[in-house]
Structures are given as structure tokens and as C-alpha cells.
């Protein structure tokens, strides 16, 4: 079995799936060519083998199955084309519920080719018809608008002509008549030409200006606005356009106008001056438009039927093509045997999967009628195996939180086991309010109860994230209710849920006094904070003291858990060096200082002493021989402190000095006259190197090892102080959450209630709800989540977690349906 260090049975912790990654092995599979495809397909269905690329030196085009992958890629392109066409037509692919795609790839390829050709032909014909339809629509608009212009011009000209003729008849002998009559020579009349068409409205003014300048003003142009948008025949997009009529003189002017029309994208259409011809053209255009509309409608119906036919089989074909492409990609990772008759593959698999893999290989050999079966064998290696944890829908999100920091090294202790409880608990310490916890719980239960339906839907980015972590949020909400009951806060309002308050007021002014104004009349409140503290002047000092000390206790407990986990690792990997020269001095140093502080806090709570713990801890270092006086909490405290201080000082060189020298001695003993030692004899020494900071190769740099150990020691000593202080964020965020909740309740809700105005009360309630949801249930939740994340990644996991492994990524078909090409 390909384990680094074999030590499977040396664990100090109870066996559980998440505590250690699954034992992995490097396996070799020799498969005959005729059954290779089916073998890889069955292994993909199994999803428990991570193949290694044995052809990494070859380019994709030099590999054995490059042609098949290209073929699958072409089919995938056709399927993407179909998907795009269905999306535009509003046709949804029919869901394919089965996983077994028993259709022939050659048949799929032929069918896809036929369908693509047919659909492309339909699209091309439809585009031609649509273009003709759009051109005729524009032509119809030109006929209407230009016809109106010519008709009005004709009426105006006729009226002017009749007026001139009447004037000439009446006033031929009048004094105002000109002495010389102007005579017009018919041979010298100028014949004007004209062009009609449509130009985009935003370009119409520039178009008119350019025409005027190009012809030096020798044109006459009229434009008419089209109220509705028209579809441009060239682009197929809707655009606002104007109909124009340009009158010109001469062929040079005409050629210039034609070039300008082309430059501005103006579509030109023929037009006749003759009114009868105009009416005839209008009739023809209207008839052709009706015919085209019917033809286009029939074409679209045919196209929709074809797309629906494709949609019925689309998912099945898509899955088949993806499967085949994945199989050939994997086959390209296998190396071709020298005989060219079989493929050799290597990969990682969990030990428990061996019988299932062998069964899949046998089934593939039988189903492919292969005369020779596949060969399966386990290889020995010093290579680091991948990390594989068997998770379920509940533990997956917690494992992802840990993996975001770093994937666990093979077989090292997994922080997720304890993170499942500690993460939501530390969140709840900062978020403690059972009213807010219930709101979170209701929102999460919606995601949990509808998970089957929601998992098959496409959600937004934020919703997708919340749905993925629904069980984390569920645990966070449950723990928030628990800590909220301890703090006795329901939207900052206390309730005597478990018993009446143990205290009563001596007089009416006791709420303004400190504890002197309260008299204890009953037994101590059985669970959590006594509700009578709320609203008194001493509430804040009391809760500050309580939460600050509680934060230190929780922090020291979790850091101790981290150091104990490092012992579990050392025990599992059989590294005595790490136990005696890392775990032991770290436990002594942390607990002689901060473990002692935690003990003093508990003793002070139990005895009701008035000792100043700040003074005790500061002068433990500054004046260790000084008498404690009133700060003494138990007999022989001074002697105990001196002992703890001495042990803490001794533990620093204990951590720093012995380990590098022991590693050096082990290295020398291992390589002196033992160059040809058996592989099995080096297991323990390999573990020492892997976990103790030495290199796995032959060179041993003592200076590098010593510097590494020096950095590690300094980091732990300083980190013991800074990490303990870091846990005070539990106190700070809990206080901030409580005070914000109190402000929203007192300054918004109660103030609105005090106005005795229904409208103000409604506004106050709305502001309170939005403030609670927006600030406390969204922003504060995110803030507490990030702080809990930091406490786990930095303060807890740095005590034992290396996180330099890599995930087990098996070849599987499970996720093919959800992947985008």
C-alpha cells in the first residue's frame, strides 16, 4: 500500500471517518485495447480512481486518442449551436433522468450532422425571407411617405399654375404688366432626377449637410419622420429612420449622392412619379408582404418543431458526448504498451475500493468480449498520496471551511471533526441572542426543508453560497439560541424563563444604583444571566467582566485542544521527537501561563474573591518574589507561581535546542553504512523527516533545520500571548451585538411607542425590523462568521495543522451534467 509511513494503528483518538483521511494506494491497471474504453467507462461510473498522466511529455495532438477527442469536440460544438438556437426560440430541453446512456456515438454523430444541416438550411431560408420582408416593409413606407410628398407637391403645382394662368388672362393690358414677356424654350428645360430611401434618424442631419456640401447646394431634399421603429434589413435590428427624397441635376451629382447613401447606410428604393404606377407598386408590395408573412410563419413553425425534437434528446446526447470526451481524455493519460496491444494506467484509489475496482474490471472484460482480462496490482511508492475524506451533506460544508485554509496532509488529524462543534459555538458566543437565533433558524429551515427542489435549480451567487452552507448556518442558529438563553437576551429584552430573579429592589431608585440597591431573596438564577441585571448601572461592568473572562477560558481551552491534536499526529506518525520536544514543552508553556490564568478565573468565581488578576499576572513576571497580600486566592500561591514561571522559562530552550540535534544524529545514523537498507526499515525515519521539519531528500542542512526550529519556537511563544488576546474578540463582538440590539430596541421601538401616534409607531416598527434584519441578522452574522473563521484558521489550526496536502480528484461522471463546456 502506498502510504507514507505506514503508521496506521498508532492513533490515540477513536476511529472515525473524518479524523484521518482514507488509506490510499497507488494502483496499476493493464487493460487490453479492445476493452479499454469500456473499462474506463465503468471506472468513471465507480468514481474511485484518480488517474495519473503518464503522457505528460506529449502534446495533446501526439496522444493516442486525439482524433476521437476532436470528433467529440465537434459534436459538442453542434450541441452548443442547438442549445443557443433553442434558447433564442424559447424551447427548453427535456430533462434526462437516467444516467445510463445506451446509444451509439456514431449514430449520434450522424444524427447531429443531419440536424445541423437541416437547421442551418432553415435558418438561412428564414434569414433570406426575413430580409426580403424587412426590405418590402421599408419599401412600403417609402411608397407611402414619398407618395404623400409627390401628391402634395402635385396639388400645390396645379394650384399655382391655375393662379398664374388666371392672372395672365386678367392683367395682360394692365400697367403693371412687364414690357417683355418671358418666353421659355422647351428645348432648354432642365430635367431633375430624384432618389428615395431611408436613412437612420441619428444620421439624418449629418446626411443632409454632407449632401448639400458635396453638391454645392445643387440639390433639394425632403425628409419625413417614421413614427415607429423599423427593422433594418442588413443588421436585423430595430432602428428609428427617416424617409428621404433627394432631387438632383446631372449624372455627377447622382453618383456623389449614391456614394454618400452607401457611406451612411441609407437603403434606396425605386419610385415612380406616375400616380397609377405608385398605386400598382403599393398593391404588389402589400400582396408580397402578406405572402412572405405566411411563409415566414410556416418556416418558424417548422423550425420550432425541429428544435422541440432536438430538445427531447438534447440532454441525452449532451451527456453521451461529455461522457465520451471524458473517457478519451482519461485514455490519453494511459500509456501504450510496447506491444501496442494494451494500455497501462496508474492512479490513486482508496484501499476500501479495491474489490469494487476489480469487479468493474472483470465486468468490462466480459461485456467487451475480451479474450484477456485486465491486470490490477498495487504499487509501492514514497510519493505523497492525495487526501480523501468521506463526507455527507452535513459535514461537507465544514470540510470546505477547513479546506479553504489548506487541504490536510495525507493522514494528518483533520480539524473538521471538532470544527463542526467549535465553529458554530464560537460564532454563537459573539452572536448570542435567542430571538436573532430563531430568525436565523427559520430562514435556514426553509433551505433545509426545500433542499431537494433548490438543489436542482440555478440560484444566484449569494443564495448559492448560503444554500451550500445551510447546515453550518443551522448549527450557528441553534448555538445562538443556546448562548442567547445563557445571556438572557431576546432582541436585548431579558425574560425570567427558568425561575424568578434571585434579587429584588430595596427601594425605587435601585435601578440607578449598583449592586447595593439589590437584595438577594431567592436561590441563584438556575441558568444563564439573572434578568435583573438588565437596565442597572452595573450591567455593563458585570457583563464585560463575565464575557472577557469567558473569552479567555474558551481561547485557552481551544488552543490546548490544538496542541493535543499535534500529539495525536505525532503518536499516529510514531514521531517520538515531536512528542517530547514539541508537544510536552508547548503544553507546559501555555498552561503554566494562561492555563494558570484560567484556573485563577475559575477560583475567583467559586470563592467570590476580590483579588485583582491583572496585578497577579503582571507581577508574576515583574516581581515574582513579592508577597501577594490581598491578591492571594489559595495557599502556597507564590510557590506555585514561581514553579510555573520556572517551567515556562525552561520550556523555551526545551522546544528550541534538542530537536535539531536529534534530527541530525538520526540522519547520520541512517546514512552511515546503511546506504542499501530495505525500504521497510526507513518508514519511521521518513516520518521524522516529514513531520519534524527535515527534508525528504539526502541533503541535510543543519543550519536550515535550526533556523526553522528557532522561528517555530519564537512564533509559538509570541503566539501564545497574541492568540490569547485574539480570543478577546469574542467579548468585543458579543458586547457590540448586545449594545446594537439594545439601541435599536430602546431608541427606535420604545421611542416610537412613546409618541402615542399610530403612524409614528408603524414607521418605528418598520425601521426596527429593517435595522434588525439589515444590521444584526446580515452584517453582524457575516462579521461574527469571519471572526470565528479567523479564530479557527489562525489561533487553533496553527498549533497542529500543516495543510499542505492535495485533494483526491477521482475520474467520475457524477458532475458531468452540471458542468458547462
From TrEMBL:
| TM helices/strands, residue ranges | 425-449, 470-487, 550-568, 580-603, 639-657, 758-779
**Where is the protein found, in the record's own terms?**
Membrane
Query: Which InterPro entries does the annotation name?
Result: V-ATPase_116kDa_su (IPR002490), V-type_ATPase_116kDa_su_euka (IPR026028)
Concerning Pfam families, the annotation shows:
V_ATPase_I
Q: Which GO terms describe its molecular function?
A: ATPase binding; proton-transporting ATPase activity, rotational mechanism
For this entry, list what GO says about its biological process.
Answer: vacuolar acidification
Principal place where this protein is found? membrane
| Residues forming coiled coils | 105-139
Q: Which UniProt keywords apply?
A: Coiled coil, Hydrogen ion transport, Ion transport, Membrane, Transmembrane, Transmembrane helix, Transport
Per the record, the domain of life is: Eukaryota
Cellular compartments per GO CC: vacuolar proton-transporting V-type ATPase, V0 domain
Stated membrane topology is:
Multi-pass membrane protein
Indicate yes or no for the key word Cell cycle: no
Q: What does this chain do?
A: Essential component of the vacuolar proton pump (V-ATPase), a multimeric enzyme that catalyzes the translocation of protons across the membranes. Required for assembly and activity of the V-ATPase.
Q: Which family does it belong to?
A: Belongs to the V-ATPase 116 kDa subunit family.
Q: Tell me what this protein is called.
A: V-type proton ATPase subunit a
Species of origin: Brassica oleracea var. oleracea
Amino acid at each position: 500500500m502506498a502510504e507514507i509511513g505506514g503508521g496506521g494503528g498508532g492513533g490515540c483518538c477513536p476511529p472515525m471517518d473524518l479524523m484521518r483521511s482514507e488509506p490510499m494506494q497507488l494502483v496499476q491497471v493493464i487493460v487490453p485495447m479492445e476493452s479499454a474504453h469500456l473499462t474506463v467507462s465503468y471506472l468513471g461510473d465507480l468514481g474511485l480512481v484518480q488517474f495519473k498522466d503518464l503522457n505528460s511529455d506529449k502534446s495533446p495532438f501526439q496522444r493516442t486518442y486525439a482524433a476521437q477527442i476532436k470528433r467529440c469536440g465537434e459534436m459538442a460544438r453542434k450541441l452548443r449551436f442547438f442549445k443557443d438556437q433553442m434558447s433564442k426560440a424559447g424551447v427548453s430541453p427535456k430533462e434526462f433522468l437516467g444516467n445510463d446512456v445506451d446509444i451509439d456515438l456514431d449514430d449520434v454523430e450522424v444524427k447531429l450532422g443531419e440536424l445541423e444541416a437541416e437547421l442551418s438550411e432553415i435558418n438561412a431560408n428564414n434569414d433570406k425571407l426575413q430580409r426580403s420582408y424587412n426590405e418590402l416593409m421599408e419599401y412600403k413606407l417609402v411608397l407611402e411617405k414619398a407618395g404623400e410628398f409627390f401628391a402634395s407637391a402635385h396639388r400645390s403645382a396645379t394650384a399655382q399654375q391655375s393662379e398664374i394662368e388666371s392672372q395672365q388672362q386678367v392683367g395682360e393690358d394692365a400697367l403693371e404688366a412687364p414690357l417683355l414677356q418671358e418666353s421659355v424654350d422647351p428645348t432648354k428645360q432642365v430635367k431633375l432626377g430624384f432618389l428615395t430611401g431611408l436613412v437612420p434618424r441619428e444620421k439624418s442631419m449629418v446626411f443632409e449637410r454632407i449632401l448639400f456640401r458635396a453638391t454645392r447646394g445643387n440639390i433639394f431634399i425632403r425628409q419625413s419622420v417614421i413614427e415607429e421603429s423599423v427593422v433594418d434589413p442588413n443588421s436585423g435590428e430595430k432602428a428609428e429612420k427617416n424617409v428621404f427624397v433627394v432631387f438632383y441635376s446631372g449624372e455627377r451629382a447622382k453618383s456623389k449622392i449614391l456614394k454618400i447613401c452607401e457611406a451612411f447606410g441609407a437603403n434606396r428604393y425605386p419610385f415612380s412619379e406616375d400616380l397609377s404606377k405608385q398605386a400598382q407598386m403599393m398593391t404588389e408590395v402589400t400582396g408580397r408582404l402578406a405572402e412572405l408573412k405566411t411563409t415566414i410563419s410556416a418556416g418558424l413553425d417548422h423550425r420550432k418543431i425541429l428544435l422541440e425534437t432536438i430538445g427531447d434528446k438534447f440532454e441525452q446526447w449532451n451527456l453521451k458526448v461529455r461522457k465520451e470526451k471524458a473517457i478519451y481524455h482519461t485514455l490519453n493519460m494511459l500509456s501504450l504498451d510496447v506491444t501496442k496491444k494494451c494500455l497501462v494506467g496508474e492512479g490513486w484509489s482508496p484501499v476500501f475500493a479495491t474489490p469494487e475496482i476489480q469487479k468493474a474490471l472483470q465486468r468490462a472484460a466480459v461485456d467487451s468480449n475480451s479474450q484477456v482480462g485486465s491486470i490490477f496490482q498495487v504499487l509501492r511508492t514514497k510519493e505523497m498520496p492525495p487526501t480523501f475524506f468521506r463526507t455527507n451533506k452535513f459535514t461537507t460544508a465544514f470540510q470546505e471551511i477547513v479546506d479553504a485554509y489548506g487541504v490536510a496532509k495525507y493522514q494528518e488529524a483533520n480539524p473538521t471533526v471538532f470544527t463542526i462543534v467549535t465553529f458554530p459555538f464560537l460564532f454563537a458566543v459573539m452572536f448570542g441572542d435567542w430571538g436573532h437565533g430563531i430568525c436565523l433558524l427559520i430562514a435556514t429551515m426553509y433551505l433545509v426543508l426545500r433542499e431537494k427542489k433548490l438543489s436542482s435549480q440555478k440560484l444566484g451567487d449569494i443564495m448559492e453560497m448560503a444554500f451550500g452552507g445551510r447546515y453550518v448556518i443551522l448549527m450557528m442558529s441553534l448555538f445562538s439560541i443556546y448562548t442567547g438563553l445563557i445571556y438572557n437576551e431576546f432582541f436585548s429584552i431579558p425574560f425570567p424563563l427558568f425561575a424568578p430573579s434571585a434579587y429584588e429592589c430595596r427601594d425605587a431608585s435601585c435601578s440607578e444604583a449598583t449592586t447595593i440597591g439589590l437584595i438577594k431573596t431567592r436561590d441563584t438564577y438556575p441558568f444563564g444571566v439573572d434578568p435583573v441585571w438588565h437596565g442597572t448601572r452595573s450591567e455593563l461592568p458585570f457583563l464585560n467582566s463575565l464575557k472577557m473572562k469567558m473569552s479567555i477560558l474558551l481561547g485557552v481551552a481551544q488552543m490546548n485542544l490544538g496542541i493535543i491534536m499535534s500529539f495525536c499526529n505525532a503518536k499516529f506518525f510514531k514521531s517520538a521527537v515531536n512528542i517530547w520536544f514539541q508537544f510536552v514543552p508547548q503544553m507546559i508553556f501555555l498552561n503554566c501561563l494562561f492555563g494558570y490564568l484560567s484556573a485563577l478565573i475559575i477560583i475567583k468565581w467559586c470563592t467570590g474573591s476580590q483579588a485583582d488578576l491583572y496585578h497577579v499576572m503582571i507581577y508574576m513576571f515583574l516581581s515574582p518574589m513579592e508577597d501577594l497580600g490581598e491578591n492571594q486566592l489559595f495557599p502556597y500561591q507564590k510557590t506555585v507561581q514561581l514553579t510555573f514561571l520556572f517551567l515556562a522559562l525552561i520550556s523555551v530552550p526545551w522546544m528550541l535546542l534538542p530537536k535539531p540535534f536529534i534530527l541530525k544524529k538520526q540522519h547520520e545514523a541512517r546514512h552511515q553504512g546503511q546506504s542499501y537498507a530495505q525500504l521497510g526499515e526507513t518508514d519511521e525515519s521518513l516520518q521524522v523527516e516529514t513531520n519534524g521539519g527535515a527534508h525528504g531528500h539526502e541533503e541535510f542542512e543543519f543550519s536550515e533545520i535550526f533556523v526553522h526550529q528557532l522561528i517555530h519556537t519564537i512564533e509559538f511563544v509570541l503566539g501564545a500571548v497574541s492568540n490569547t488576546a485574539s480570543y478577546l474578540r469574542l467579548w468585543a463582538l458579543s458586547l457590540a451585538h448586545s449594545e446594537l440590539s439594545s439601541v435599536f430596541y430602546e431608541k427606535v421601538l420604545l421611542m416610537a411607542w412613546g409618541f402615542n401616534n399610530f403612524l409614528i409607531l408603524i414607521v418605528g416598527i418598520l425601521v426596527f425590523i429593517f435595522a434588525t434584519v439589515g444590521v444584526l441578522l446580515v452584517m453582524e452574522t457575516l462579521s461574527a462568521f469571519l471572526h470565528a473563521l479567523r479564530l479557527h484558521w489562525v489561533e487553533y489550526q496553527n498549533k497542529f495543522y500543516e495543510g499542505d496536502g492535495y485533494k483526491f480528484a477521482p475520474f467520475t461522471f457524477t458532475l458531468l451534467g452540471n458542468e458547462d463546456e
